[in-house]
Structures are given as C-alpha cells and as structure tokens.
C-alpha cells in the first residue's frame, strides 16, 4: 500500500492538555548517530562496522529480549490453563488442547497478523516524529479487529458441529465446545491487545508489557486454581479465567499508555480520524493477517496430514514433541521479528536507508547464530529429548529420527521470521502473503504428502516436503531483501507521510 489519506480533521474526543512538541515536517530526515557513523567516510571500514554494530546490538537486544519474554509468558498463560485442565481428567485435557491449539489458534493468528499493520504505520510515523498519528493508527486497527472478531465469534459458537464434521468424537467435541464458549471474550481482548502492543513496540516501549504479562501470569494461575479446584466450575470456568487474564493485560497496557509520560506525544485521546481511511487500512491489515496465518497454520496442517498415516500414533507423538520444542525456540525468533519490524520501520520513517539496511543485517545475523546454537543442542540431545514429555523407546527412536529435520527447521526459523519482520517494517505484507501461498501450499504441502504417502517415508517424508516449502520461502525473502533499494523504501515511507500532511492541510483550509 502506497499511502493513507486522512479524510477529516483530527478532532480528539479526549484532548490532552500537555504541550506537544512541533513535529518534524514530513519528508525531513531525523538525525541519527548510527546513520552518521555509517556515512562517515573519514573512518575506516572496520571502525564504522565496529561502532555501528555495537550501537545496533544494544538497540536490538533492548527491543528483542522483552519481546521474547512477552510472547513466552503469553504462551505459558494459555499452556497453564491446559495443564490445570489436564489434571481434571483425560477428557478435559483433550478438550482444552483442542480448544487452545485448534480453535483459539485461528483467532490468535488472524488478530496478531492483522494487528501487525500497526507496526508498519506506527513505526514509520514514529521514526519521522509524526507522533500525533500513532494513536489514530492504533484506534483504527482496534476498530477493524473488533469488527473481525464478530465472524470469529460465530465460528466459536458453532465449533461443535465443525469439530464433528472434522471427525472428532461427540464426547470430545461437546467438551471442547464448552471450553471454547468461555474463550469468546478472549477474541475481543486479542482485538484490543495487539494494536496496543504494536503501538508500544513502535516506540521501543517493551518492558512494561513484559512486567504486565508476568504479573498477569501469577494472577491467572491463582484464579485458575481457585475456579477449578475450589469452586469446581470446570472447563467453562477455566476458559473464562483465560479470557479475563487477557483483558487484564489489555486494561493494564491501556492505563499505562494514558498515564505514562512516555506516551504523552503519541496518545492524545480518542479521535474521529480513527473512522476515516478504514478501507486502505483494511487492505494492509488483511494482507498482514493472511501472511501470518499461512505461516501459523503450516505446521498444524503437517500434524493433520500425519494423522492419516497407517500407524499415526507414534508419528503424531513424535511430531508433537518436535513441534513443541520448535515452538519454544520459535518464541525467540518472534522476539527478533518484532525488533526487526520496529528497527526497519523507525529508520525508514526517519529517512535513514543505511541504518535500515544495517539493522536488517545485525538482527538476521544475531537470530541465525542463536538458532544454530539451539539446533546443535537438539542434535546432541536427540536421544533424550522425548523423555522430557513421555517415556518409551519407540517414541524416543521416532523423535531421534526426526531431530535432523527439527534442527534444520530451527535454523530456518532463525531467519524466516526475522525476514517477515523486515517485510512488516517495509509494508511488504501483500507480497509475502503471495510468496507464502506459493511456497507453503503449492509446493510444501503437496510435496510432503507425496513423500509421506507415495514414497512411504511417513512423518519424515511429510516434514521433509513441507520443510522444502519453508526453505524456498526463506531463500526468496533473502533474495528480495538483499536486492532491496533502501533509498526507494525511504521515499515510499516519506510519500505516506507527505500525502497525510497534504490531506490534513487541505482539510484544515476547508474548515
């Protein structure tokens, strides 16, 4: 998307009385120590790289570390509910697992993906010091995500017949549906949380979200224990507590935005402008949602295909164990994904092509090195990994056979999510969505099915084929990123801001 034109004057419903600094005119570059060092020809190449790397690494890890903690804690919050339910019985474990990993994953992927449009726009506006637009973008995204929550709610309501249609037993489907009903408020918590979270990340405000997530986890565990083991409210009560916990996160983050001095320039109250330009915003949000959902669902499809194998039990157990390990390591990559999108969008908005390009190199290299370390550890411990989750030599041998594929997946996941973050920072979501469709679902899924069933390679064949799709997508993104003209990307970011500035002045003259 090339621009977002604002169709009416910004009229805050709740006006802040705090003085606001004069913004930098749209298109004017903002000074940067990193850009100055990279552009200083008086320094040797080694001196420039050494100083630039130190500056970028400090900035990167200040962003990435808290982001990793946030995603891990949010994941643990959902997993703790599943663990508590599992202690009630096998039926409750199956129901909560199906609700968490199946139905809930749909809403999570859609909302997180659509919310990433805020990363592009808020990041670039913040980099250009167009602070007054960040709050408008956050509100606009929240409106669209709340509207998207309505069809998702309908899917939740009718999840029982959907699960029965997919082949689940009536007993499990009924219990899972009860759990999912309690997750309906969580849909709209997602709709508010992700725009708020991206709004804060665009300003490099990440630590408060981590503190809030940690405190909420403690409250969540206590309330879940109380509801299940003292009050005896069962699956529905556990799901309601999970929904409540997400709303606690939303409210706490919004209170922080309203009360803190750090957001006094970016949050100026509710604005009527949030209701203008929704169509253009929807197009970018939809592309973002499709991009992320295609990635989120990819491994789930592999597990579903594995369930069709002649002896699915061992295959599913081994894939589930490897998938859980991959998911935990993936949380680290997601943190780097967030850092990459913030750094790239900020530098593009500020008019710093060299800094944006160098940020891509540093964040990708850092994530790659960490992923290689985890891949080596998984190979060394390949015979012991399964015993963390279950006993039995059969499953252990199956996991050991899959570990080389797990290691390759870990390495690719150290690169691919970061490049997706770069795409978000630049606003390439629609392009990446097309790449994902081709690589994942035109190449990866069919190739995995052929290797798994036609050539009788089982779970290894399915994973190998789908790994080929991931590798193809990673190579394409690496090629596109390496060939990017960062000066043109800066111009695109400037054009967005200039178009908004011209539209705003035009509307002010009319009024």
From TrEMBL:
<feature type="transmembrane region" description="Helical">
    <location>
        <begin position="431"/>
        <end position="453"/>
    </location>
</feature>
<feature type="transmembrane region" description="Helical">
    <location>
        <begin position="172"/>
        <end position="191"/>
    </location>
</feature>
<feature type="transmembrane region" description="Helical">
    <location>
        <begin position="237"/>
        <end position="258"/>
    </location>
</feature>
<dbReference type="GO" id="GO:0042910">
    <property type="term" value="F:xenobiotic transmembrane transporter activity"/>
</dbReference>
<feature type="region of interest" description="Disordered">
    <location>
        <begin position="1"/>
        <end position="31"/>
    </location>
</feature>
<feature type="transmembrane region" description="Helical">
    <location>
        <begin position="402"/>
        <end position="425"/>
    </location>
</feature>
<dbReference type="Pfam" id="PF01554">
    <property type="entry name" value="MatE"/>
</dbReference>
<feature type="transmembrane region" description="Helical">
    <location>
        <begin position="356"/>
        <end position="381"/>
    </location>
</feature>
<feature type="transmembrane region" description="Helical">
    <location>
        <begin position="462"/>
        <end position="480"/>
    </location>
</feature>
<keyword id="KW-0175">Coiled coil</keyword>
<dbReference type="GO" id="GO:0015297">
    <property type="term" value="F:antiporter activity"/>
</dbReference>
<feature type="transmembrane region" description="Helical">
    <location>
        <begin position="60"/>
        <end position="83"/>
    </location>
</feature>
<comment type="similarity">
    <text>Belongs to the multi antimicrobial extrusion (MATE) (TC 2.A.66.1) family.</text>
</comment>
<keyword id="KW-1133">Transmembrane helix</keyword>
<feature type="coiled-coil region">
    <location>
        <begin position="483"/>
        <end position="510"/>
    </location>
</feature>
<feature type="transmembrane region" description="Helical">
    <location>
        <begin position="103"/>
        <end position="122"/>
    </location>
</feature>
<dbReference type="GO" id="GO:0016020">
    <property type="term" value="C:membrane"/>
</dbReference>
<protein>
    <recommendedName>
        <fullName>Protein DETOXIFICATION</fullName>
    </recommendedName>
</protein>
<feature type="transmembrane region" description="Helical">
    <location>
        <begin position="316"/>
        <end position="336"/>
    </location>
</feature>
<dbReference type="GO" id="GO:1990961">
    <property type="term" value="P:xenobiotic detoxification by transmembrane export across the plasma membrane"/>
</dbReference>
<keyword id="KW-0472">Membrane</keyword>
<dbReference type="InterPro" id="IPR045069">
    <property type="entry name" value="MATE_euk"/>
</dbReference>
<keyword id="KW-0812">Transmembrane</keyword>
<feature type="transmembrane region" description="Helical">
    <location>
        <begin position="211"/>
        <end position="231"/>
    </location>
</feature>
<dbReference type="InterPro" id="IPR002528">
    <property type="entry name" value="MATE_fam"/>
</dbReference>
<feature type="transmembrane region" description="Helical">
    <location>
        <begin position="143"/>
        <end position="166"/>
    </location>
</feature>
<feature type="transmembrane region" description="Helical">
    <location>
        <begin position="288"/>
        <end position="309"/>
    </location>
</feature>
